C-alpha cells in the first residue's frame, strides 16, 4: 500500500513565502485567517486526510461501490460513510463558505491545500464532496433567495451533497444536443423534469439523507442549441419552500459504471421521471450557471492531479532510496551495501525531479488561482476585482489541463521508478495511475480546455488574461533584472514571456483567415502556456526561498529543482512552439477517408 | 468491446514496397517464402488472430488467471487453452524455426507481423507463446546437442512452452545479486537448483503438459556479481536424456500477481526446491545466454506496443467518425446531422494522426530489425552478416523502448478520443491502456534500454551501430537529393542525421570526464534516436508509396501522414536535444537528502 503525508512545509512556503498570504488575507478583511488559525487548519487537515482518508484508499479500489438494481441504491466501500461523517463533524465541508450559510468563512484559497490533501489521500472519496462546491456556487450566484435558504445550508454543512447533471449518452461536450425536458407544473413554481443523465459523479450514495441534483434541461419553448438550456435544482427527496423534506422525487439511479479507476467513486446513470425541480437563474440561462459550476469543478479536478502526483512522488522517492540495484556509473556510492540505492542513477533522478518540479510548480499555479478568487470576491478596488476574475478565468483551463496531464505523467514516472513492482497492486502505485487517468477526461477533456484557453479566454477577449499574467511576469523580471544570482532564471523567463506573446499574436492573426488555426494550435498552445507559467513560479520560488527563514537545505533544494526545471522541462516549449508554428495544414489536409479503412 | 482487423494492406506495403522483402528472401535462400506463400500466411494469421484471439481479449481481462494454492496450478481464462491448441495445430508456434526442429523454416521477419497481430488481438494470451522464443534461441545458441534434441522440438512445435526465470524479489536489473543456487548432482550430469524467482511470465498454466524453465542461478564456486551467473534448463516434469518425460520436478508456482492489466497472463512466483536441471552453455557463462533470450524478448515486447497501438487506432478512428459533437470551427461540415463527427476537429485529428504516424513508422522499424536477423543468419557475405548483427543490436533498445512508450502514448490518445467513454470498461479501450502499461517495465525498463543504447550499443562499440544506420540514411538522402518532391523530407532528415552524429560525439566526449553524463543523456538520447529513425522510415515510405502500385488515396495518405510526422512529431527532437545538451549537472547536483523528507 502507498503511504501519504501532507507536504505541510511546502504548502506553507507556497502560501506564506511566495504568495504572501498573511498580508493578502489581512488586506481582504479575512479577520479570522491569522497565521495561527491557518496553520492549525492545515495541520488538522493533514491529520484527517493522512489518518482517516488515506488508509481507505486501497480498500475503496478493491471493493468499489456496489449497486442494487432493485432499489437503485448505491453502497460505498467500508469506512467511506464514517469518514464522511467525520468530515462533516470537523466542519471541513463549509471551510471556505460564508458563515451565513453555516460555513467557516475562511479564504477560498485554503480550500486548495485541503483538496490537494483529500485527493492525495483518497481521490475517489474526494469526489463525493467535490461536486457539492459546484452546486453551492451555482446556487449562490444564480439561485433565488428561497432556494439559497433551503438548499445552501445543508450543502455547505455537508448534510446533503450536490451533483452536476450535464452529460447525456449522446452529448458531453456539446450540451446543445441535450434531450432532458422540463415543463412547468400547475403550481406555477415547480417544473417536471424527465430524461437520462450519465456519468453523474456521486449521483447516488449512502453518505447523506438527501442529494441535490443540478440538472440541465430544455423548456418547451427553448431556442435550439446551447442557448436553449436551463438549469434546475432537483432533490432526491422533495423539498418544500420552507425546507421541509418530503417524499421521494422521481429521481433514480439506473446503474453505475465499471471503470479503469476511482472505483469507489459512484459514477451514475440518473433517470429523471417527472421529477419535481425548480428553475435556477432565468429560463434558457442555464449555460451561464453551468459555467459557474464548471469552473469551480475544473479547478477542483486540477487539484486531483496535484494530490496524486504528490503521493506518487513520496512513494517513488522512498522506493528509490530503499531499492538497491547496480552501482553508480561513477563508482560505488555505498560500497558497504550489496548495491547502491537506485536514487544514485541519473535516469531515476530525472524521473523524481520531473515529478518534484511539476508538483511544486503546480502547487503555486493552483494556489495563485485560488487566491485570485478571494481577490475577485473581496478586494476593495473594483478594477482589481475584475482583473482577478479575468486572470483566474484565463488560468483555469491551464490549471485544469496541465495539472491533470502532469498528474498522468507523474504517476507514470512513479510506476516506472518501481519497475515491475509498480505494475502489481501490492504497492498501490498502479492505482494512482489508474485513478489519475480520469482527470484529463471529466469536467472537459484536455482538448476542450485547450479550446477554452485559445478561444474564449484568449481570442474572444483579445488576450486580456494573458496580458495580465505577462504584466506580473514583467514586473518580477524588472524587479530582479540586476540580480546576478537570479539571471539564470530571469533571462530565459523574459525570453519565453516575449515568445508567448508573439506566438499568441501569430495564432490570432492566422485564425482571421482560417478559424481551424485556433483548434490546430490549441493543444500545444495550452502546454506552451503551462510551462511558461511554471517557469515563472519556479523563478519566484527561488527568490522567495532566498528571502525566507527556511533552512539552507530547503533553499538549496528549491534552487536545484528550479535549475532542473529550466534545463529539462522548460525546453518542452521548443517542441510546442514548433508545432504551433507548423499551422493547421498538417492536421487538416487529410480527407477523412484517408485516415484508414 | 474493441474490435480488431489486421492491417494487412499496410503490412504488405512495408514488407514488399519499402523493405523489398521478395528480393531479400530470394537472396537469402528462403525458397519457400514466395509472395504467394507469404500472403497466404499473413491472411491466415489475420483470420486466426481476428476470429479466435481477439474475441477472447475482454474475457481474459474480466476473468483473469486463477491460482489454486493447494495444488500450485494456474487456470487460464475460458477459451485460452483451446485457442492455444489451434495455434499449435496451425503450425504458428514454429513459423520461423528451422525445419530440423519441427518448424516451418520461414524467414524470421515474418514473425514480426504475426506477433503484431497476436499482440493486437490478445496481448495477455500472446505472452504464453512469447517467452518460448527466447528459450528456443538460448538453447539453439548455447545448448548441448542432446539438450537441443530433447527440449527444442517440443518447444518449437508448441507442445511445451518456455520461460525465462531471471528476476528475484531483491533483484531485477542487477542480476549479479541473485541468490538462486545450483549444485552438481552425483550423476555428474544434472544440477540441483533451489531459490525463488518472481515475475515469471507463463511460469505455470494449463496450456501444455510440460513447461521448460530457463533459470539463472549461481554455482558454488561462482565469482561475485554478474560474472558468476550460470543458465540452467529446468523442466516442470523431469526429462531424461532420451526425451522421456518422468516425474514432477521440484518446481512449483507459489502465487500469481494481481496486476493493473494483462490479467490473463500468469505472472508467477516460481519456487525451485532441489529441482533437477542441466547447465546450458558453460559454467558462469549465463549472462551471454541470457542476453540471447533477452534480445529476442525485447524485440517481441516492442511488437506489443505496435499491436496495442494499431488496435487503439482502429477503434479511436471508428469512434471519431461516429460520435457527433459540436460543429467544425470553419462551419458545419454535415449540416444535415445534429452535429459534426468529432474527426472534423483539429485536436482529434492531431491525436489520430499521432497514433497513425507512430504505428506505421514503428512497423517499419520493427520489420527492418526483423529482416536484419535474417540477414545476420543467412547472408552469404560474412561482413554483411556481422554488420546486420551490429545494426540489429543497436536498434533493439530503440525498438523496444520507443515502440512501448509510443504504445502508452497511443493508447492514451485513443482513450482521450473517446472522452469519458474511454474510461469505462464497456468500450475495451481502457484495457488496451492498462495492458500497454507493462510493456515499458518488463524485459528491461525504458531507462535500462536507454542505458543499453548509449552504453553497450554506442559508447562501448565506438558508435558502430549508429554509423551503419547513418550510412543507410545518407545513401537514401543522396539517392533523392535532386528530387524536388522529396525535399520537404530529405532536407530535414539530412540535418537531423548530422545532428544525431554530433550529439553522440558530444555525449561520449563529456562522458570521458564524467561517466554520469552517459546516464544523464540516456533517456533523451534514446528518444532523439527513435524520432530520427522514424523520420527516415517516413521519408522512405513516401518514396516507396510513390513508386508502388498502390492507389492514389494510399499514396496520398502516406504523404500526408509523413507531413504530419515531420511537422508535429519530429520537433520533439528539439526538446530531447536541449535536454541532452544541458548535461548531467541538473540531475546530479541535488544531494539525496534534499529530494524531500
From TrEMBL, chains A, B:
The record places domain Acyl-CoA dehydrogenase/oxidase C-terminal at 285-452
Keywords from the named record: FAD, Flavoprotein, Oxidoreductase
Supply the source organism for this entry. Answer: Pseudoxanthomonas dokdonensis
Database matches in InterPro entries: Acyl-CoA_dh-like_C_dom, Acyl-CoA_Oxase/DH_mid-dom, Acyl-CoA_Oxase/DH_mid-dom_sf, AcylCo_DH-like_C, AcylCo_DH/oxidase_C, AcylCoA_DH/ox_N, AcylCoA_DH/ox_N_sf, AcylCoA_DH/oxidase_NM_dom_sf
Q: Does the keyword Oxidoreductase apply?
A: yes
Q: What superkingdom does the record give?
A: Bacteria
Domain named Acyl-CoA oxidase/dehydrogenase middle: residues: 164-274
Give the catalytic activity.
Answer: 3-(methylsulfanyl)propanoyl-CoA + oxidized [electron-transfer flavoprotein] + H(+) = 3-(methylsulfanyl)acryloyl-CoA + reduced [electron-transfer flavoprotein]
- Ranges for the Acetyl-CoA dehydrogenase-like C-terminal domain? 469-590
Can you name this protein?
A: 3-methylmercaptopropionyl-CoA dehydrogenase
